[in-house]
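Technical note accompanying the year-one report. For the benefit of new consortium partners, we illustrate the data format agreed upon in the data management plan: each record pairs a sequence with a structure-token string. No post-processing was applied to the example shown here.
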Amino acid sequence: MSCRKGPRSAPRTTEAALTAYTAGPQDGIFTDGGCDPNPGPGGWGAVKVIDGEITDERHGHAPNTTNNQMELRALIEAFKMAGPDEEIAVYSDSQYCVSTINIWG
């Protein structure tokens, strides 16, 4: 996979990410997923943040998948992290996921 070809510029630990990225929302559930190549091996992640602190995180992978499948898996897990009566924003960089919830849902 291309992400293994050289050093990564993004932080590799939770602590490093929290130190590097201080701007943006301090509350919400943040999701991402993808694969390389598409289709191919992929992964997803979701992180719940309250008052700037990570309160829950989940991740997974699949040996043969698509970008959309991984983005949707992250979104599904994000909703599982939210309490039944909890109002919390869910953030995704996937237009497919955003449209699924805000337009087609």
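Partners are asked to follow this layout when depositing records. The first helix runs from residue 14 to 20.
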